[in-house]
């Protein structure tokens, strides 16, 4: 196709990224009457796209286009006078699209609040009203004014009022406004409104740092102004947050901003409370629990610099900052930092890339660092700073394994655990029970014929939710009523196994009258419920805490002295290569909730496999010892962090289609230079059928990043041309967290 070159007077061509699944940009002519000198990358434009209009981002100004003149349409409007993203964030989104091989338009869409994607103004503006010179003369002179008109001019006075202030004054109506405007005595004007939360009136100094905390602060502060990745490896309760706070204070004193990432919305209230208690500056808080308007307001406050501290979950990695000084990634090991659907990016990894481009430090903090981060520290790419002891008077908790092979149980709670709970409760402490399985029971079972309630859409069993009296699939969301009898042999069915709901019921029987709070996805559904639950814990009203991982990640419960892990065996025999790492992290994290204040802590781990190497390694050598052994195993098995992976996944409504597509995809790579990249599979997914669709995958493995990236760049465009592509949905996952 012949390229069309821009001619004098036509202006440059706009190369626009649109929020579509197409892996390309789109060329447009500038809008009619647009001054070409005002155009630049990063501006949003409204453009025609088929029969509708879309909002996109200009990624390039091109002098030529592959489209013939008759097909090159003009953009409808330029929506901004300045780029929506700062240069680093703009380039970061493009880099992420290239690295994760995702459509660039969807990558830029992920970087913008929904209201900006819909075309809302970049800057918040407010209409205000003021008296004209003639109006002020009329108010003080002998002009004929009605009582309401005079009251309105008096209310405005020498200043101005916004619509809400006018309404609150009680002296105006829209008719009075229009009458004064018509007479030329009142006029409106627009002003930008900064979206800033007022800072707290008082702030605390914080505790005196320990020697290890002070050394960590000095090391990180000494690197301000340069790119320096740090692994802050501190045992649970060692005061990593105190290090963050002191480093950020130094950045703020230099007039810079700080970006703090937390893995889940459940941690956001606690983080915000700690930062508000220490800094007399506005905070911008970004997470999925905000309304679209609230999110845009916070985003604007971060972008214009009126919020020096920005706290957010995964997507906050893209928030623009005019002058960042440091980036913090708390609980860096957490899987929540990896987007698992759509644009599959890792916010933790992008934080390191962004810090490098800004030339600032990035702090990755965790008591249980990921093996990738630990290997980066071992290789010297990251600087490791340790907090080996708990802060204050807290000591390490005593840890023991409860052998379920010999211990009697009551609905999943061993007798020795119940006795220990009674002892700690009588001492006035709180107790935490951890079970990473919600619902009443994981299976509804027929003792007559062995039937178990299946999900009709997935290769999975339905979970019993007794209080709602439903069977629910935790994979696709399907629900069905609980049958009273087996549909096969009519025998009475019964729930088998334990979930958090059943544990709560058991605790009501074992400890009648003792207040219990349960924290899982079933009890925390609406806005404000997590804050209310945590307030019951911190106030001491709740004495027993039951929950899934939502309850354990990074929370500080000073009065919890006993933690019981009710089923440590869930992850011992997982099919994914990261299963052992995730289980070790979960156990260490939940164990760290015990004994964080002056009271001694105790941790009991229930297991039917107490001699399993993972458990014995954790007990004897701690997380560091486990991680060292796990790294040796990963290196021998050629798994990350010693190799690079990508997974091509496909799903379809018919069982044979995903495997057929993946086989064709593998064939499409045969004539491409591999440079050592291995294609393994295709193979069915561990859960082959989910939500009514059949799934399969093809694994790509490489000793280094470069050959894998080059192969993906040449290979993936070929997949769109395969005949099998039209009958499947496919996606590529670079650096996957799961390959099972």
Describe this entry's structure for a reader:
There is one protein chain. The chain has 740 residues and is an alpha/beta fold. The chain is built from 20 helices and 34 strands. Strands 13-14-12-15-16-11-17 form a seven-stranded parallel β-sheet, sandwiched between helices. Helix 1 packs across helix 2 (104-110). The two termini are 44 Å apart. Residues 1-9 have low confidence and may be disordered.
Write the layout of secondary structure elements.
Elements: E1 4-5, E2 13-18, E3 26-28, E4 44-49, E5 52-62, E6 64-65, E7 77-78, H1 87-99, H2 104-110, H3 114-117, E8 125-131, H4 133-140, H5 147-156, E9 161-162, H6 163-169, H7 174-182, E10 186-192, H8 211-221, E11 228-234, H9 240-253, E12 257-261, H10 268-278, E13 283-286, H11 292-303, E14 309-312, E15 324-330, H12 347-358, E16 361-366, H13 371-378, E17 383-387, E18 398-403, E19 409-410, E20 413-414, H14 415-426, E21 430-434, E22 443-445, E23 463-465, E24 470-472, E25 479-481, E26 494-496, H15 500-510, E27 516-519, H16 529-538, E28 544-547, E29 560-565, H17 579-591, E30 602-607, H18 613-637, E31 644-652, H19 656-668, E32 678-690, E33 693-702, H20 705-719, E34 729-734
Parallel strand pairs: 11-16, 11-17, 12-14, 12-15, 13-14, 15-16, 18-30, 21-28, 21-29, 27-28, 29-30
Antiparallel strand pairs: 1-6, 2-3, 2-5, 4-5, 4-7, 8-9, 8-10, 19-20, 22-26, 23-24, 24-25, 31-33, 31-34, 32-33
Summarize the structure.
The chain has 740 residues and is an alpha/beta fold.
